[in-house]
Design brief:
Helix content is about 45%, strand content about 30%. With about 140 residues, it is of the alpha+beta class. Helix 1 packs across helix 5.
Protein backbone atom coordinates (compact mmCIF):
# COMPACT_ATOMS: atom_id res chain seq x y z
CA UNK A 1 0.00 0.00 0.00
CA UNK A 2 2.73 2.45 0.96
CA UNK A 3 4.71 1.62 -2.18
CA UNK A 4 1.63 2.35 -4.24
CA UNK A 5 1.13 5.63 -2.36
CA UNK A 6 4.71 6.71 -3.03
CA UNK A 7 4.42 5.68 -6.68
CA UNK A 8 1.12 7.55 -6.95
CA UNK A 9 2.59 10.68 -5.38
CA UNK A 10 5.61 10.49 -7.69
CA UNK A 11 3.32 10.07 -10.70
CA UNK A 12 1.16 12.99 -9.66
CA UNK A 13 4.24 15.13 -9.18
CA UNK A 14 5.49 14.18 -12.63
CA UNK A 15 2.17 14.94 -14.28
CA UNK A 16 1.94 18.27 -12.46
CA UNK A 17 5.48 19.15 -13.42
CA UNK A 18 4.97 18.71 -17.15
CA UNK A 19 1.61 20.40 -17.48
CA UNK A 20 2.94 23.95 -17.52
CA UNK A 21 3.29 26.53 -20.27
CA UNK A 22 5.31 25.97 -23.47
CA UNK A 23 9.09 25.86 -23.31
CA UNK A 24 10.77 29.09 -22.34
CA UNK A 25 14.38 30.11 -22.56
CA UNK A 26 16.41 29.32 -19.47
CA UNK A 27 17.09 32.65 -17.80
CA UNK A 28 19.60 31.48 -15.19
CA UNK A 29 23.19 30.46 -15.85
CA UNK A 30 24.15 26.80 -15.36
CA UNK A 31 26.01 27.74 -12.16
CA UNK A 32 23.01 29.68 -10.83
CA UNK A 33 20.79 26.69 -11.62
CA UNK A 34 23.17 24.36 -9.79
CA UNK A 35 23.20 26.58 -6.71
CA UNK A 36 19.43 27.13 -6.74
CA UNK A 37 18.64 23.44 -7.22
CA UNK A 38 21.16 22.33 -4.58
CA UNK A 39 19.87 24.80 -1.97
CA UNK A 40 16.25 23.92 -2.76
CA UNK A 41 16.90 20.17 -2.52
CA UNK A 42 18.76 20.60 0.75
CA UNK A 43 15.74 22.41 2.22
CA UNK A 44 13.46 19.58 1.09
CA UNK A 45 15.78 16.94 2.57
CA UNK A 46 16.09 18.92 5.82
CA UNK A 47 12.31 19.16 6.01
CA UNK A 48 12.02 15.39 5.56
CA UNK A 49 14.67 14.70 8.19
CA UNK A 50 13.12 17.08 10.72
CA UNK A 51 9.49 16.23 10.00
CA UNK A 52 8.97 19.90 9.11
CA UNK A 53 6.21 20.19 6.51
CA UNK A 54 6.74 23.96 6.14
CA UNK A 55 10.42 23.54 5.33
CA UNK A 56 9.70 20.60 3.02
CA UNK A 57 7.16 22.59 0.97
CA UNK A 58 8.74 26.04 1.27
CA UNK A 59 9.68 26.24 -2.42
CA UNK A 60 6.83 24.13 -3.82
CA UNK A 61 4.56 25.53 -6.51
CA UNK A 62 0.92 26.12 -5.56
CA UNK A 63 -0.19 23.05 -7.51
CA UNK A 64 2.40 20.81 -5.86
CA UNK A 65 1.47 22.06 -2.38
CA UNK A 66 -2.14 21.22 -3.20
CA UNK A 67 -1.09 17.64 -4.05
CA UNK A 68 1.11 17.07 -0.98
CA UNK A 69 -0.77 17.88 2.21
CA UNK A 70 0.65 17.32 5.71
CA UNK A 71 -0.70 13.75 5.97
CA UNK A 72 0.82 12.78 2.63
CA UNK A 73 4.10 14.37 3.71
CA UNK A 74 4.15 12.32 6.91
CA UNK A 75 3.54 9.10 4.93
CA UNK A 76 6.34 9.97 2.49
CA UNK A 77 8.67 10.87 5.36
CA UNK A 78 7.98 7.63 7.24
CA UNK A 79 8.42 5.51 4.13
CA UNK A 80 11.69 7.18 3.22
CA UNK A 81 13.09 6.89 6.74
CA UNK A 82 12.19 3.19 6.90
CA UNK A 83 13.52 2.31 3.48
CA UNK A 84 16.35 4.79 2.84
CA UNK A 85 17.40 5.82 6.33
CA UNK A 86 19.10 9.12 7.02
CA UNK A 87 20.45 11.35 4.28
CA UNK A 88 24.26 11.23 4.02
CA UNK A 89 25.34 13.15 0.93
CA UNK A 90 24.34 14.48 -2.47
CA UNK A 91 26.15 15.21 -5.70
CA UNK A 92 24.74 17.48 -8.40
CA UNK A 93 24.87 15.71 -11.78
CA UNK A 94 23.46 18.37 -14.10
CA UNK A 95 20.17 19.50 -15.58
CA UNK A 96 18.07 19.38 -18.70
CA UNK A 97 15.15 21.46 -19.94
CA UNK A 98 11.77 20.02 -20.84
CA UNK A 99 8.43 21.73 -21.39
CA UNK A 100 9.56 25.03 -19.91
CA UNK A 101 10.88 23.31 -16.80
CA UNK A 102 14.39 22.50 -15.64
CA UNK A 103 15.01 19.04 -14.26
CA UNK A 104 18.03 18.99 -11.96
CA UNK A 105 19.53 15.57 -11.28
CA UNK A 106 21.33 14.52 -8.12
CA UNK A 107 23.02 11.36 -6.91
CA UNK A 108 22.43 10.89 -3.19
CA UNK A 109 23.47 8.47 -0.48
CA UNK A 110 21.34 7.32 2.45
CA UNK A 111 22.25 5.15 5.44
CA UNK A 112 20.00 2.15 4.64
CA UNK A 113 20.40 2.11 0.84
CA UNK A 114 23.56 0.43 -0.50
CA UNK A 115 23.04 1.88 -3.99
CA UNK A 116 22.99 5.49 -5.12
CA UNK A 117 19.59 7.19 -5.13
CA UNK A 118 18.73 9.31 -8.15
CA UNK A 119 16.82 12.46 -7.21
CA UNK A 120 15.07 14.43 -9.94
CA UNK A 121 14.01 17.93 -8.95
CA UNK A 122 11.67 19.67 -11.38
CA UNK A 123 11.88 23.45 -11.26
CA UNK A 124 9.09 25.20 -13.11
CA UNK A 125 9.43 27.76 -15.83
CA UNK A 126 13.24 27.94 -15.89
CA UNK A 127 13.39 31.34 -14.22
CA UNK A 128 15.71 32.87 -11.65
CA UNK A 129 13.65 31.87 -8.59
CA UNK A 130 11.70 28.86 -9.80
CA UNK A 131 9.25 26.90 -7.70
CA UNK A 132 9.45 23.12 -7.33
CA UNK A 133 6.92 21.50 -9.64
CA UNK A 134 7.95 17.92 -8.84
CA UNK A 135 10.47 15.75 -7.06
CA UNK A 136 11.04 12.04 -7.09
CA UNK A 137 13.50 9.59 -5.65
CA UNK A 138 14.59 6.52 -7.62
CA UNK A 139 15.97 3.76 -5.42
CA UNK A 140 15.59 -0.01 -5.49
CA UNK A 141 14.35 -0.10 -1.88
CA UNK A 142 11.51 2.31 -2.70
CA UNK A 143 10.19 -0.13 -5.31
CA UNK A 144 9.58 -2.88 -2.74
Amino acid sequence: MRRNLLSLVASVLLVASFSTAPAAAIEASPEDLRLQATDTLQGILDGLAEGDYGKYTEHFSKSLKAEVDRDTFLQIQGNMQRKLGKFKSQEYLGFYARGGNVIALFKARFTKEKDDVLISLVLEQAKRNPKVAGIWFDAPSLQK
